[in-house]
Design goal:
Number of helices: 8
CATH topology: Rossmann fold
Strand order of the largest sheet: 2-3-1-4-5
Structural class: alpha/beta
Order of helices and strands: EHEHHEHHEHHEH
Number of domains: 1
Radius of gyration: 16 Å
Shape: globular
CATH superfamily: P-loop containing nucleotide triphosphate hydrolases
CATH class: Alpha Beta
Length: about 220
């Protein structure tokens, strides 16, 4: 494809939203091609409706496999409506979460099998993968403490309410993925101050997007 597909991952409380909010304007100022920021679950009308269903704290009876299937369905629609058209148009697409999140949260966190969740999502995405993934890493205890400290400023969803054991399984899966795919996944220490994390991300992306970087 003409465009470039980049994803951001991280456990809850890693600060992805804050990092991307600060990073995207910097990228847009440096690049000769359009930058499109999108998110998962969500990013398209149907996908956003599925997001509300998945994250609604009232849906306590949702089965783990149902949850995984809903994420994959949301991803498929998002891919068809937003990601692939933007890539075909030559844009730099930056997505807040993608398949790695499902492998970590549903495969490991929900303990339904990382390989099974990956296979499900390979079907949904037809094998599309990002050229680079920036994984913002924080210890589970740090991430949960951040969430608790900012409960009034953000959505407190079903996943935020899970036990620390759940969140530790999620982080463990992310670390395994990073070890398995060092050419794609770059680990960023997200315990650093926000400005430093943003700078580390910018430096990482410079090499990926060098051909489009303005002098």
């Amino acid at each position: 494809m003409a465009g470039t597909f980049i994803t951001f991952e991280g456990p809850d409380g890693a600060g992805k939203t804050s990092v991307l909010k600060a990073l995207i304007p910097k990228l847009q100022a440096h690049l000769s091609r359009p930058v499109r920021l999108t998110r998962e679950p969500g990013g398209a009308k149907i996908s956003e409706a599925i997001r509300e269903l998945i994250l609604d704290p009232a849906n306590t009876e949702m089965d783990a496999r149902t949850e995984a299937l809903l994420y994959a369905a949301s991803r498929r629609q998002h891919l068809r409506e937003v990601i692939r058209p933007a890539l075909a148009a030559g844009e730099i697409v930056i997505c807040d979460r993608f398949v790695d999140s499902s492998v970590a949260y549903q495969g490991a966190g929900r303990q339904i099998g990382e390989a099974a969740v990956l296979e499900m999502n390979q079907f949904a995405t037809e094998g599309l993968a990002p050229v680079r993934t920036l994984y913002l890493d924080v210890p589970s205890s740090t991430g949960l403490a951040r969430i608790e400290a900012h409960r009034g400023d953000r959505q407190y969803d079903r996943l935020d309410r899970e036990s620390i054991a759940f969140h530790e399984r999620v982080r463990g899966a992310y670390l395994r993925l990073a070890a398995q795919e060092p050419g794609r996944i770059v680990t960023i220490d997200a315990t650093k101050p926000l400005a430093q994390v943003v700078e580390d991300c910018l430096n990482t992306l410079h090499s990926v997007l060098a051909a489009s970087w303005l002098a």
